[in-house]
Structure formats: C-alpha cells, structure tokens
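Sequence in, structure out. Go.
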Amino acid sequence: MATATLFDIERNAFSDGPGIRTTVFFKGCNLRCLWCHNPESQLMPPQMMFYQDQCTNCGKCARVCPRQLDGCDLCGRCALFCAADARKVCGREYTVDEVLSEVLKDKAYYDRSGGGVTFSGGECMLQIDFLAEMLQKCKENGIHTAVDTAGHVPFEHFERILPFTDLFLYDLKLPDSEQHRQYTGVGNELILTNLQKLFQAGAHLWIRIPVIPGVNDQPETMQQIKDWLDQNGTPEKIELLPYHAMGENKYRALGKQPLVFSVPDAETMTLLRSIFN
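Output:
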C-alpha cells in the first residue's frame, strides 16, 4: 500500500470544488510561485514551523527538547508541550487507509451537498502512486473526487488517474512562458500541453487563476488567457482568486522572508471577471 507525506486534512471545506468537501493537502511542489500561500507545502519532507509572534518565551520548549533547540530532529516534543501553539511539526507520512478513514467520516455531507474529496497541495500529482490508489478507493466508496493541480507533471500521471477523477481544478497563472518562469520557476509549455490533452480527453475542468497585483492583474493578460482557452477548450467554470496574505506569516514561521504583494481591489476583480463573462 502506498504512503504519502501530507501536511493537512481539512474537513468542511467549501472552496475546493462543489459542495461540502474534505481537502487533502500533499507536501512537495515543483513550482516556486513567489506569492505562494502554502509555503510549507513546497518541500516534501516534514518541517518545523515556529510562529514567533505567538511565543510567550516560557522556555518549556527548550527544557523538553532532547537537544535544547540546538538542531531539530522533528521529534515534536516542543510542539506537544507548547501551550501557545507557537511550534508545529508540519507534515507526516499517511497510509491510504488512514486518509480514507478520515474522508469517510463526512460521506453523508458529501451525499447531501454534492460534495466530496479534493486532493491538493503543494502538487498532489508528485506522489502519484498514493494519489491514484486514493482516488480509486474514493470511487469504490461512491465519493466525488477532485484533483487540484498546477499541471507541471508528465501527462502519463494524468492518464493514470483520469478514470477515477470527476473534476480537475487546474491552475493557470500567466500566458507568457518567460514571465511564468520568472514568477514560478518553470515555463508553462508543459502546463498548457497537458491542459490541451485534458480537454481532448473530455475531462471535467475548472480553471483557477490567482490574481496577483503587479504580476497578472492587467486586463490584457486575462484576455490572453481567455483567447487561449477559446482556441483550446471550454472549461465548466473559471475562478479568479484574489491574492491574500495568509502565507506571509507561514514564510516567517519557516525562517524565510516573504515577498509582500497587495490585495487586488473589488473594482479590479470585477473588471477582470467581466473579461471571462
């Protein structure tokens, strides 16, 4: 049985597909979007996160740590004894049965609301053996499945999961490949080619576009994305997702300095959405 490294399983989710859902978050991503709101998902191994703004300086973490905080082996004792939740081990290995057991707890809600389970990340398709087995188990249990992906993986990965995936939530960020590389670390050729193939395969697709001021919030950029879609396929839905700052504190908890972007205003979002309408 396959295993995977996950960093969260969120029940009662409403923004990752139709209905009430459980979202399973995988660690590991092969993009480095400068606006990433889940930076703890980028590396696949577990990590220690320290939220300094929550720390009360009680000193208990150092007293219970076998190394007195001089080097971390992720034993988790500091997080266990931290009353302020300032320390957290992010990520652990799960089996398919563990995740399926968690997912099945809310099956009644999925059935009533038209919901299901969404596999997200990070990039869930980097741990394809686990993902494929998990999707198949969900379908055997009558659960609607969605895969949230940036699409920068071999198309053979998509072929493995197509029979068990009811919906793809597919990220598009920038139409120009060099700009895409500048802001995410990779070009977009493979991403667009895979999306073309998914359209040709008749997959159910929602397109999700993060709106980042100063990066892709210009009407001409959105028009270029719309033109590409008009030429290549019609998704069932297009979602424009405004940048939010929730990831900035996570970067600090990982010992990194975040890049700070502004939040797009309502007028800009209305204008950009009107292009697709």
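Check: Strands lie at 3-13, 21-26, 47-50, 87-90, 92-95, 116-120, 144-149, 167-171, 205-211, 237-242. The first strand starts at residue 3 and ends at 13.
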